[in-house]
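ZP: hey, is the S-adenosylmethionine complex queued? I don't see it on the tracker
AM: it wasn't, my bad. submitting now with these inputs:
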Amino acid sequence: MKLYIVPTPIGNLEDITLRAINVLKSVDVVLAEDTRTSGNLLRHLDISKPMQSYHIHNEHQTITRLLERMLKGETMALVSDAGTPAISDPGFLLVRECIKYKIPVECLPGPTAFVPALVNSGLPCDRFTFEGFLPHKKGRQTRLKELAEEERTMIFYESPHRLVKSLQQFAEYFGAERQACVSRELTKLYEENVRGTLEEIITYFAEKTIKGEIVIVIAGKE
Ligand code: SAM
């Protein structure tokens, strides 16, 4: 009886750990955000395991049944499409319920996008705040106003088509001279880390067609 949280690569398949492979081989079932995506990874690793879908749209309904099965002795591994489950991905609810029912939970260390983005940025990483995706509408301005006073380095996930608009908003609330870094396609062939003031980074991306996955890291208020 146990729940493993298993991080999977955010691009480069070599980033899977030996322990992740061993755990995926050992469990009774793999809970996957998208069984097709994770099925491809398992096939690549030559692992054949029963899979069950566990995603944001069914997590509330499936949790009770999963807890019952674990309490009867099954061991499960939760994986997401990429990176560490529960980090801007489903997982938190299941972890919380397992803890409540005294089912052991173990999160393996492994790939996640925000750590390499933070370290690549060259901005202070002794204290930071992970903000994930900002709300799109309701609450966005309130959050930005609060963050204007934040002294720690801030980390945001963002989609490519919203990047420039978000950077412009950050410049408006934090000042165009604030230092930042945009990490795109981390661990992949076209990885790039664009460092500078918000204004410089906006200029860099403004005329480009932006593709791929993005992390924005912004210095805290001085
Ligand atoms: N659970 C994942 C993690 O541990 O980082 C995050 C999942 S969240 C749904 C997806 C977001 O993570 C993307 O929109 C992007 O902001 C960030 N991300 C994931 N992979 C990335 C990569 N290779 N390069 C840059 N950002 C990435």
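AM: back. The longest strand covers residues 153-158.
ZP: great, adding it to the tracker
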